[in-house]
Amino acid sequence: MVEAILVALDKKYPYEDKCYLNYSAPHELLIATILSAQCTDDRVNIVTSKLFKKYLTLDAFAAAKISEMEKDVKSTGFYRNKAKNIIISAQKLLADFGGEMPSGIEELTSLAGVGRKTANVVRCHIFGLPSVVVDTHVKRISNRLGLVKSDDPVKIEFELMKILPKSHWIKYNHQIIAFGREICKAPKAKCNICFMTELCPAFSNKAVLL
């Protein structure tokens, strides 16, 4: 089943290798991903288009005033925590890592507001390290396809790491996001145009509505 799903994804999205968050430096991707929690990528990109012009360097983020940062990121939601975490993370990157982005999962998750999802986004896009990123699309679709049975992102990540070939970890992330945006939407998937209905337990059980 896993192999058949990967073959279908490879056929539909053979070159899908895209980050939907705009950035031009490692710390910008980190900040954008922190802001993306409970927020759409489109909204984050609108906010960061101004944010990254206002704060041109990691040092500028580290020196930012919390009240000003809160105003800058307010429209992404949960802005108080996000503003605080951005500034603290920038300060820690300078103090503990010499201003360089670490690649280790433990080092990344030691930064304020950085969980495994954010850490894996950085590892995947900045360092090209095989990582399974469990965002809302990966969580929803992996359950619909019967690859996992959990709502816990960490459990889903480790389960996918067991059943997916390591060579497909990054590709799976990108393909599933594209699939989720185009076809396997929430709450109602476009099953009438889906290329994987024969492989989908949710479709067979009529758990996904047309």
Explain what this protein looks like in three dimensions:
With 210 residues, the protein is mostly helical. It has 2 domains: 2-15 and 133-204, Helix-hairpin-Helix base-excision DNA repair enzymes (C-terminal) (Endonuclease Iii, domain 2); 26-125, Orthogonal Bundle (Endonuclease III, domain 1), CATH 1.10.340. The chain contains 12 helices and no strands. Helix 2 (26-35) packs across helix 3 and helix 2 (26-35) packs antiparallel against helix 8 (116-125). The longest helix is centred in the middle third of the chain and has 19 residues, at 79-97. The two termini are 23 Å apart. The mean pLDDT is 94.
Question: In a few lines, what is going on in this structure?
Answer:
57% of the residues lie in helices and 0% in strands. With 210 residues, it is an all-alpha fold.
Helix proportion: 55-70%
Uncertain segments = none
Q: Tell me the total number of β-strands.
A: 0
Shape: elongated
Could you name the CATH topology of the largest domain?
A: Endonuclease III, domain 1
CATH class (first level) name of the largest domain: Mainly Alpha
CATH architecture of the largest domain: Orthogonal Bundle
State the distance separating the first and last CA atoms.
Answer: 23 Å
How would you characterize the largest beta sheet?
none
Strand content: under 5%
CATH H-level superfamily title of the largest domain? Hypothetical protein, domain 2
The count of helical stretches stands at 12
Structural class: mainly alpha
H/E series: HHHHHHHHHHHH
Cα Rg:
18 Å
